[in-house]
Amino acid sequence: MRCIVNVTDYVKNLTEREKRTVRRMYDFDAFRAHLEIPSALAKKAREEYGLDPAELCDQRGVRIRDRYTFDETLFNETRSRRPLAGGRSGKDIQSLKAYIRNSKKHCDFCRPGELTAYRQLPRIERAGAVSAANLCPYDRNHGVLVFRRHDPHRISRPQLEDILRVAVDWCKQLRKEDRLARWPSLGWNCLWPAGASQVHGHAHMLALHQPSPWQRAAIRRRGYWRDWVAAHQALGLCRRLSRDYWLAACLTPAKEKELRLVRLRPSGEDWFKRPQVLCSRLADSLHLVLRFFLGQLRVRSFNVAVFFSPFENAGAWPLIVRLLDRGAVTPGKVKPNDMGILETLFGASVVSSDPFKLVEKFDRFRAKAKK
Fold it and tell me: For 142, which of 39, 59, 89, 327 is 20 to 30 Å away at the CA?
């Protein structure tokens, strides 16, 4: 099985053209950590955590840096076996399901017409979702998209398309009153480890005047996303899901299990003429990935960010979706914070999940889903 800490070896074995693409996009810094393990600690590591003391004495890791966005991630496989909170067992998942059911009793979003604010613009309503305004907006064009179903883990393919349609229609509506609102996006925080203040499924809609800093950095280099996909393809981390969408296990994930959907091919979708085509094709691919997250990986708290193409020249710009696992959720138990000083102040992510193992799990899931 391939492993991220060996990525520099894999790069050496690529064709010359593939090497140039990968090295144009990324810097790699492989390292070894040699430790002395006292006998008492070795015994505890073996008996309580199932760690081989010999492996702890000589550990390997790698730092990977995107040369254009400056995203940076540090990998050490041993970190994934550290003692942290559970939350993915059958018992924990059943406990969470009961908690979600009980939270319906006093849920504001189950009554969006009465208990959510709205702008002067009319609400946009579809069978699977309805638009609202954020009670405390963090941008001039900030809206809330409330799912019709309370349980955030019950997302059907038709409901997901409705969610995307409401977001697109809301952004188009904002565009009519604010011509500078050129950069539309959708962000979904699922449950509290991911930043959600409500259990009920909901997402945030934004129509920004400027691209996000992350988008801007990629925009500065022409052909960035084509090279990004090519680099991940060369290393075996990218899969084609459809005529339009590629899925990749990211080399520089912001947090655990980051997957990215990328639409490179200009498909002719137009914001004002064919939004149903845009949303239908995106829903097909995104729903498959969500089923993988929720089913195969048992992810329960996650972030999804959809960076739509801008309003002008939409066909020439990529559409990007980022998905992150934000850890286990067990009601009544405190979850360890998944962000430390390296993320908050030093600008580098420390990640335990291995992109190579992640894409292998997706391959098995996809093969089973096709049967």
Answer: 327
- 143 and 161 co-located in one domain: yes
Range 308-325 average pLDDT = 84
For the stretch 104-125, pLDDT in tens is: 999 999 999 999 988 877 899 9
Domain range enclosing 127: 90-370
- For residues 77 and 94, state if they share a domain: no
Eight-class DSSP state of 310: P
- Tell me, yes or no, whether 29 and 134 share the same domain: no
Distance (Å, whole) CA 259 – CA 104? 31
Q: What is the pLDDT of residue 85?
A: 46
Q: 161-186: buried (b, 16+ CB within 10 Å) or exposed (e) per residue?
A: bbbbbbbbbbbbbbbeeeeebbbbbb
Residue 233 and residue 243 in contact, taking contact as beta carbons nearer than 8 Å? no
Q: 336 pLDDT exceeds 80?
A: no
Packing angle between helix 275-291 and helix 157-177, nearest 10 degrees? Answer: 140
The pLDDT of residue 136 is 87
Q: Which of 22, 54, 81 is the last residue of a domain?
A: 81
Its pTM stands at 0.93
pLDDT band at 339 (very low <50, low <70, confident <90, very high): confident
Tell me the two tokens of residue 126: 């579809």
Do 170 and 190 belong to one domain? yes
- Please state the domain count of the chain: 2
What CATH number did the domain enclosing 297 receive?
Answer: 3.30.428.10
* DSSP structure string for 54-105: HHHHEEEEEEEEETTT--EEEE-GGGGGS------SHHHHHHHHHHHHHGGG
Highest mean pLDDT pick, 33-42, 236-245, 324-333? 236-245
Q: Are residues 71 and 173 in the same domain?
A: no
Question: 278, exposed or middle or buried, with CB in 10 Å at 0-12, 13-18, 19+?
Answer: buried
Dist CA 349 CA 13 (whole Å): 27
Residues 95 and 163 in one domain: yes
What single DSSP character describes residue 319?
Answer: E
